[in-house]
From TrEMBL:
Organism placement in taxonomy: Bacteria, Bacillati, Actinomycetota, Actinomycetes, Micromonosporales
Organism: Dactylosporangium darangshiense
Keywords, sorted A to Z: DNA-binding, Transcription, Transcription regulation
Spans through the membrane: none
Stored InterPro entries: Bact_HTH_transcr_reg (IPR050679), Homeodomain-like_sf (IPR009057), HTH_TetR (IPR001647), Repressor_TetR_C (IPR004111), Tet_transcr_reg_TetR-rel_C_sf (IPR036271), Tscrpt_reg_HTH_GntR (IPR000524), WH-like_DNA-bd_sf (IPR036388), WH_DNA-bd_sf (IPR036390)
Signal peptide: none
Protein's name according to its UniProt entry: TetR/AcrR family transcriptional regulator C-terminal domain-containing protein
HTH gntR-type domain ranges (all copies): 5-73
Length: 305
């Protein structure tokens, strides 16, 4: 006789069945470790083990900024035809799909070629290397959310529009925040359009262009700086099996030892307000910073007039 089915195996069987029945479709989010713990009354290690088993079966996959989702069935690999290279748009779209799923760290020209079903050297007919590939990916990502064709509204509403569109790009493609730079910005026209949009808005409000450029960079840096955490956070949850709440819970003992020294009385007072006193969600942090920055720029615009 076989032993009783382990709790993690029951969870795996239930999710596997839901996928097979079409109740969970490719791209649908599956329960997180925290949700599995609550729904099935299991420990975190058991929930993590279940998701790990599903990933090994190829049924689910991590998606940065979203969580664990049902994996798409592998496509049949086309026959490699060296003399018939894939169009550039397909190369870029495939690279974006790979980076969205697994991050930039695992994106290579060799892996991209394998995903396209082509020899690596065929891909090099379209892009000179990874640097050019990242430029094209960034341009395509920002091109998904174009700025309005008519610049209506005052300077504040226009800057807010740009910031929210940028945040949306990073939400969909967390890797893009890593590619962007202020010291060596990528010459991607669709990204540069945001700089032009903001400069024009502040210029029309009477702000000198050098000051307008600093303001534009400050705002873009807030959006990008917050978005940098998206991919890191998704990777950390995948590696540890802990979401943010679970991670903080696991740190309680260490936090207690540190604050017992008396060096952090204000920090301790904040912690004693409870876990819901501060919202650490990245969307909340983005909104808070955006509002404060625009409030500050309101004074700047008034002083420059």
């Amino acid at each position: 006789m076989h032993g009783a089915e382990a709790p993690f195996q029951r969870i795996v069987a239930r999710i596997r069945s839901a996928i097979a029945a079409g109740e969970l479709r490719p791209g649908d989010r599956v329960p997180s470790t925290r949700e599995l713990m609550r729904e099935h009354g299991v420990a975190m290690a058991t929930a993590t083990k279940a998701l790990t088993a599903l990933r090994r079966e190829g049924l689910v996959e991590p998606r940065p900024g979203v969580g664990t989702v049902v994996a798409r069935p592998p496509r049949a690999r086309p026959e490699a035809v060296p003399d018939s290279p894939a169009p550039l748009e397909r190369v870029v779209a495939t690279a974006i799909r790979l980076a969205d799923a697994d991050g930039l760290a695992v994106l290579s020209m060799r892996r991209l070629a394998a995903a396209l079903g082509l020899p690596t050297m065929t891909v090099y007919r379209h892009v000179a290397g990874k640097e050019e590939l990242l430029l094209l990916m960034t341009d395509a990502a920002f091109g998904e959310a174009p700025l309005p064709g008519v610049a209506d509204g005052d300077w504040r509403s226009r800057l807010e529009t740009s910031a929210r569109l940028q945040w949306g790009v990073y939400r969909r493609h967390p890797w893009a925040a890593e590619v962007m730079s202020f010291t060596r910005p990528p010459m991607a026209a669709n990204a540069m359009a945001h700089t032009e949009w903001n400069l024009a808005a502040l210029d029309a409000a009477g702000v000198p262009l050098p000051v307008a450029m600093h303001a534009t960079m400050m705002l873009a840096n807030h959006v990008r700086g917050t978005a940098i955490n998206l991919e890191w956070e998704a990777g950390a949850e995948q590696d540890t099996g802990l979401d943010n709440v679970q991670w903080f819970t696991a740190q309680e003992e260490r936090f207690a030892r540190i604050t017992a020294t008396g060096r952090f009385p204000t920090f301790l007072r904040l912690a004693m307000l409870g876990p819901d006193a501060v919202d650490f969600e990245l969307d909340t942090l983005f909104e808070f910073g955006l509002t404060r920055l625009l409030d500050g720029l309101t004074r700047l615009v008034r002083d420059e007039r």
